[in-house]
Design brief:
Helices cover 72% and strands 3% of the residues. The chain has 623 residues and is mostly helical. Among the domains are: 266 residues, no CATH class; 40 residues; 31 residues. Helix 8 runs parallel beside helix 13 and helix 13 runs antiparallel to helix 14. The longest helix has 47 residues.
């Protein structure tokens, strides 16, 4: 089946092409074709995995050369796919969760007149994301990287008739382009330093590279990761991106695109292993975003934006994990996969709640929905237990391993992850309490009801992953030995023992959950958010002033620079050009007066000219 791995990308790409080029003629069955193409790609991925499992660990990596792309002297870049344990894990996550989201979208987008186009964009995104994770070189990865950027722009702004959606799409596109500068610089630095951009050759050459070179490449890759994975300081786009349809939030902002930065750093592990400064920068960025996202999540009344803050925080855990080196690579990727299950499930659950509440996203208008939406409540609840890390749910097995690895790095790093766990328990309990418990605060024209099966079945499947995915990956699939041949693995040494750390972590989680429960389930939730709040709550509501910072540091100075350049262009550049033209015009006007049209005048000028020339010649001869 490996020989047909190109179908992984070809199927969703063909689906997008048919739906976009076929136009309205495909409206009646476009959603079915888009779903079938994603499911077909998932089937190819499963078959490829089965074939890979039959091989030894050393034989599982396969390079599938499709054609030569760039051949200039000794610089050779092919269009080639790299199948190994890391890429196939992402393939199954992208196509598996992606297919469930396609199925969910059949019901969620049933009444949208542009549903066919929506499925085309979903297929395009799946294809681009697969190019990103299957590429065997950084140039082809860059193609997929830009492809998911384009697809996310189209999907976030799908309801472009809403000014907020159009603005959010542009914001996501621009902020991601800032991060993309980092990937461009990294690729150029690799070519300059190593003469190649293929993963295998770069990793081999990195062993003998200077620390300075590796550091600059690592920092450039980190900038790229910050853009795609919504990490500080390029995190501001993610919260606004919730303006897109909810399936977009589940696919792009929970399970796939925002994890691309984690994949990029893990795939480039050889660079970071010899660049301690870049590695430390990754840990710092992950830790800052982990706390920022959690704090933002505590103050959001919009259910999707609350989950978006949570996503920032959980990706922060993953970024911090890959910054820890061989003790963290595997567990960061482990958490990435489990997070794909429970966060996608919760985003779909949020969409189900919105479906039953006439698209109202304000949790202050919810309450007691567990009685009207039992399936949504149960599936969302499993995701809740998974994300806060309650055993035996998935998040417990993956996030706690990152916490343990963090303590092996330093006590400060470990404490940051523990604080994040406590805040996570608080804001997620707040979300559960405001949505499914307490008294009903429904508006008069709202009658909550359960969503159709096309929406609830994908939610139930994802909830199974939330409940059992961690145990299956750790104890059945043995994810440690599975990923070790690609990214390396070392057991954590130092720090508290698991017998001590696990009870401490669960105690902190329990305290955070209890605080959230007492405040939002045991007390009446006002319909309007209180305005008499602390400066910390105000800051959290304002996304910790991320947009304010960007406006003051980047946007306003950029405006002033642009205005200055326009002034220089108008007054200096145009002044010189227009002044030169005016001077030529004045001189021409004076010369024009000598053109009288009388032959006698011209003859006189000619005689005078001969006299002058003769006089000059005589003077020169006498000298």
């Amino acid at each position: 089946m490996t020989a047909y791995a190109w179908l992984l990308v070809a199927l969703p790409l063909a689906g997008a092409a048919v739906l976009l080029l076929g136009g309205k003629r495909t409206n009646a069955w476009g959603h079915l074709l888009g779903t079938a193409m994603s499911l077909g790609s998932f089937g190819v991925g499963v078959a490829t995995l089965i074939e890979m499992l039959a091989k030894t660990a050393e034989e599982r990596e396969t390079i599938i050369h499709l054609w030569d792309w760039i051949v200039v002297g000794t610089f050779h870049v092919p269009v080639a796919l790299q199948l190994d344990q890391l890429s196939i894990s992402f393939v199954l996550l992208i196509t598996g969760v992606g297919s469930l989201i396609h199925i969910y979208s059949i019901g969620y987008m049933a009444h949208d007149e542009n549903r066919r186009k929506f499925f085309a964009y979903l297929n395009l995104f799946i294809a681009a994301m697969l190019v990103l994770v299957l590429a065997n070189n950084y140039m082809l990865l860059y193609v997929g990287w830009e492809g998911v950027g384009l697809a996310s722009y189209l999907l976030i702004g799908f309801w472009i008739h809403k000014p907020s959606a159009a603005t959010a799409a542009k914001k996501a596109f621009v902020v991601n382009r800032v991060g993309d500068v980092g990937l461009s610089l990294a690729v150029m630095l690799m070519f300059t330093a190593f003469g190649t951009v293929t993963f295998g050759e770069v990793n081999a050459a990195a062993e003998s590279a200077s620390t300075q070179t590796a550091t600059w490449i690592g920092l450039a890759l980190l900038l790229a990761a910050c853009g795609k994975s919504a990490q500080f300081p390029l995190q501001s786009w993610l919260l606004d991106a919730m303006e897109g349809p909810t399936p977009v939030s589940a696919l792009i902002h929970a399970a796939t695109m925002v994890t691309a930065g984690v994949y990029l750093i893990a795939r480039s592990h050889a660079i970071y292993d010899i660049a301690p400064i870049a590695q430390t920068a990754v840990i710092v960025i992950g830790g800052i975003t982990l706390i920022m996202g959690a704090i933002i999540g505590t103050a959001k009344d919009d259910i999707k934006k609350g989950l978006a803050g949570s996503t920032m925080s959980q990706i922060g855990y993953m970024i911090l994990g890959v910054g820890l080196g061989p003790v963290g690579y595997v567990f960061a990727l482990f958490h990435l996969i489990t997070h794909g299950f429970f966060k996608a499930g919760m985003f779909l659950g949020a969409g189900s709640v919105m479906h039953g509440m006439h698209d109202d996203v304000n949790m202050r208008h919810y309450g007691n929905l567990r009685t009207a939406m039992k399936i949504t409540y149960a599936t969302f609840g499993m995701g809740f237990l998974a994300i806060i890390g309650i055993p035996p749910f998935a998040g417990f097995w993956s996030k706690d391993e990152i916490i343990r690895a963090a303590f092996s790095h330093s006590p400060l790093t470990g404490i940051v992850t523990l604080i994040g766990a406590g805040i996570t328990a608080f804001y997620m309990t707040r979300m559960m309490a405001m949505t499914f418990f307490g008294t009903a605060r429904w508006q008069d024209d709202v009658h909550p009801h359960e969503s159709p099966k096309s929406m609830t079945i994908p939610m139930m499947i994802l909830s199974i992953g939330s409940a059992f995915g961690g145990m299956l990956l750790l104890f059945v699939a043995n994810i440690e030995s599975w990923l070790e041949p690609v990214v390396g693995f070392e057991h954590a040494h130092g720090g508290p023992d698991s017998s001590v750390l696990i009870p401490v972590t669960l105690t902190i989680v329990a305290i955070g959950a209890m605080m959230g429960w007492v405040q939002y389930a045991k007390r009446e939730v006002p319909l309007l958010a209180p305005t008499d709040v602390s400066i910390f709550t105000k800051a959290a509501r304002a996304d910790l002033y991320g947009d304010t910072f960007n406006e003051a540091v980047f946007m306003r100075p950029g405006q002033y620079l642009t205005r200055s350049l326009v002034y220089v262009d108008n007054k200096v550049v145009d002044g010189v050009v227009n002044g030169t033209a005016g001077l030529v015009g004045v001189v021409a006007a004076q010369l024009r007066r000598t053109q009288t049209g009388f032959v006698r005048s011209y003859a006189l000028v000619m005689v005078l000219g001969v006299v002058v020339i003769g006089a000059i010649a005589a003077i020169v001869g006498m000298a």
